[in-house]
Amino acid sequence: MSEIWEMSAWELARQIQARTVSSREVVEAHLRRIAEVNPRVNAVTVVLAEEALQAADAADRALGSGTPVGPLCGVPVTVKENVDLEGSATTLGIVPLRDAVAAADAPHIAELRAAGAIPIGRTNMPEFGMRWHTDNELRGATRNPWSASHTPGGSSGGDAVAVATGMAALGLGNDGSGSLRWPAQCCGVAALKPSLGRVAQVGLPAGAGDPPRPTPFGFQLLAVHGPIARSVRDLRLAFTHMCADHGGDPWHAPVPLDGPPVPAPVRVWLATDPDGPDLDPGVADALRQAAERLSDAGYVVTEGRAPALVRAGEIYTQLLSAYGRVHEVQPPVESVASEGFIRFWAEYEPHWKQAAGQAAFDPMMERAVIARAWMAWMSQAPLVLAPICTSPAFAVGADLDADRLARWPASLRMAWTANLLGLPAVAVPTGVAEGLPQGVQIIGPRFREDLCLDAAEAIEARTPALTPITPR
After folding, report:
1. According to the model, what pLDDT value does residue 337 have?
2. Which intervals hold domain Amidase (predicted)?
3. What SS3 class is residue 427?
4. Is 179 a catalytic residue?
């Protein structure tokens, strides 16, 4: 029989509601797992033991009295440190915000709590979420459970490691430049980047009487909240309870979670050419395996070249560069960041600027042109099977290497395009190569997360489970 901490979110919820295990037993099992594993990986930054046990006891009382409970009743989740969780600091991984305690939950966190989920810990991230390795001066570095000498990814690296090692059933992070999908690839878990407008971005003010906090346009357009899990079924379960509360977000779209049927067999573009660096052999093999598994499941997979990838990457970079900060109310990065982050940015900034390409007269106009090209391409096949990054998890410290940083923007071009166009994407593991997990992403039309999840489940059903894993 599986240990409690090894069970999926769906199985935990089922057993809790069947009363074969109590919510307290589930939370206690995950707290023991955190105590055992977290000192080796440093993924969970704040353990919410007292609050989680109180919530578990309340859930057990409700079940005992026959009071209806939510479908995630008793399921332990972690929350990234740039997501508001009432009573806990939203640090963004920087020292000056270590005491920035949130007065209320972010809308999707409140919704998940209402469904019965129990926050059990906060999770680590790079400073500002602006690095693809999880490290900061406030919390230190998070280690990949597959190999301590390799990155766990970023910026939702803490959640990916927490879920991969069984410290939580679900992780709640966000993705503005692959920040859910890249850690999922590095750690061998699944992740969902929803469509733009699905999950509310705008939360309540920080405190009573405070004005709403400004959100830079770049992040309104490019970044979304989403779940990390060990199974695609669990992604679907979490996602179902993240989308209803608009939270005052003007981008929010109350679209049905399931769209109209797509004629069978469903067609899939296999995008093996990211129009940049050659694919690492392990990544190329992961794509080939995923394509074969989709074909075996009845999908029709055809190799194709994604349109306008180079320009999509450039427009993405221009938008985030110009509109990624609220300069009037935020201090210079150099005044609040660690020496490590300043060193990283000094190395990366010239490559970031070069990745912007020729300045657009109107980047949103060009974005619309690219979006129409993708709509036309995806009218022939609604799903795209693509790499997340052209290489697997890099060695710790490699993101300070000038040569690697020069290639980095092009290596994530496919992931950035999904962010630019507001498209949903699901990261799903495919196996292991040279001791490191490999994964791919399924990209779909806007608001068709259901199609992406269906295809990811077909791949997962034909792939041996990689996690949970005990750190090596």
Report:
1. 85
2. 25-453
3. strand
4. yes
CB atoms near residue 340 (< 10 Å): 17
How far apart, in whole angstroms, are the C-alpha atoms of residue 13 and residue 11? 5
CA distance 155 to 24: 31
- The domain locations on the chain are 4-461
List pLDDT tens digits, range 143-162. Answer: 999 999 999 999 999 999 99
Residues 6+ apart with CB under 8 A from 379: none
Task: Please report which helix (H) or strand (E) contains residue 89, including its range.
Answer: none
Q: Which of 27, 34, 75 is nearest to 161 (CA)?
A: 34
Contact yes or no for 284/272 (Cβ under 8 A): yes
Catalytic residue chosen out of the listed positions 8, 88, 147, 179 = 179
Contact 330, 295 (CB under 8 A): no
> What angle separates helix 413-421 from helix 309-323, to the nearest 10 degrees?
70
Question: Is the distance from CB of 353 to CB of 394 less than 8 angstroms?
Answer: no
Cα distance between residue 414 and residue 259, in whole Å: 24
* 3-class SS of residue 425: strand
pLDDT in tens, 100-135: 999 999 999 999 999 999 999 999 999 999 999 999
Helix 232-239, helix 449-461: angle, nearest 10 = 160
Exactly one of 155, 156, 195, 411 is catalytic; name it.
Answer: 155
Task: Report the alpha-carbon distance of residue 443 to residue 451 in Å, rounded.
Answer: 9
State the Cα angle at 104 between 101 and 105, rounded to 5°.
105
Q: Rounded to two decimals, what is the model's pTM?
A: 0.97
8, 23, 80, 177: the catalytic one is 80
In this predicted structure, what is the pLDDT of residue 93? 95
Determine whether 80 is an active site residue: yes
CATH number of 4-461: 3.90.1300.10
Distance CA(103)–CA(280), nearest Å, equals 45
pLDDT band at 210 (very low <50, low <70, confident <90, very high): low
C-beta neighbour count of 138 within 10 angstroms: 19
Question: Is it true that the peptide bond before 468 is cis, omega within 30 degrees of 0?
Answer: yes
**Beta strand extents in 281-392 (DSSP E only):** 300-303, 383-386
- Smallest CA-to-CA distance from 115 within 268, 10, 251, 40 is with 10
Indicate the DSSP class of residue 190.
E
CA gyration radius, the chain: 21
